[in-house]
Design goal:
By secondary structure, the chain is mainly α. The protein is built from nine helices and two strands; from the N terminus they run αααββαααααα. It is 48% helix and 6% strand. The relative contact order is 0.11.
């Protein structure tokens, strides 16, 4: 028997077209391996896109498991929102995330910035060709959450987008 919370998460997942309430990235509900294969990402990376139930009003603040209080959010966004010292309310957090994404300041700055830019640039093979590196190097960058500085600069030259390099924030970040 499914709990009310699980039922409401599933309903939100479907209503949101399998996309995160905050970042609007696709999510998976039950098959991480298929998701990873479909999106050509590692299992480790795919786990960040697991669908979770997000309470718009937290339980600790009196929020219930009711449908109108539950949205579907990827594990990364859900955890990242709650790790902030002063967690933003869901509406403000969603705006913050969307601003970061639409401003080419990738929201998943530690988890998915490299992945996002690689996807936007046409995938690992395309980026490897453009940068003159092996595709396996791109996979390492995605898994390690950074791009070596010389390649981050080249990506910026080619696209105008900024990615995180080793201990160096993107141009214009802040």
């Amino acid at each position: 028997m499914l709990t009310t919370l699980v039922k409401n998460r599933k309903s939100a997942f479907i209503a949101q077209s399998c996309r995160c309430f905050y970042c609007d990235f696709p999510m998976w509900e039950s098959d991480c391996s298929s998701f990873a294969q479909t999106h050509k990402i590692s299992l480790r990376r795919a786990k960040q896109f697991q669908c979770t139930a997000e309470h718009l009003v937290a339980r600790q603040d009196g929020g219930k498991d009711a449908a109108q209080n539950i949205v579907a959010a990827c594990l990364w966004c859900n955890q990242t929102r709650h790790k902030r010292k002063l967690a933003k309310n869901p509406s403000d957090y969603r705006s913050f995330v969307r601003r970061r994404l639409t401003g080419n300041r990738q929201y998943h700055q530690v988890g998915n910035d490299v992945f996002c830019v690689v996807e936007i640039m046409g995938g690992k093979q395309s980026v490897a060709t453009k940068l003159g590196v092996e595709e396996i190097e791109i996979e390492h960058w995605i898994d390690d959450h950074y791009v070596p500085t010389r390649y981050a600069e080249k990506i910026h030259e080619l696209t105008g987008w900024s990615v995180w390099s080793i201990q160096v924030p993107p141009v214009g970040w802040g």
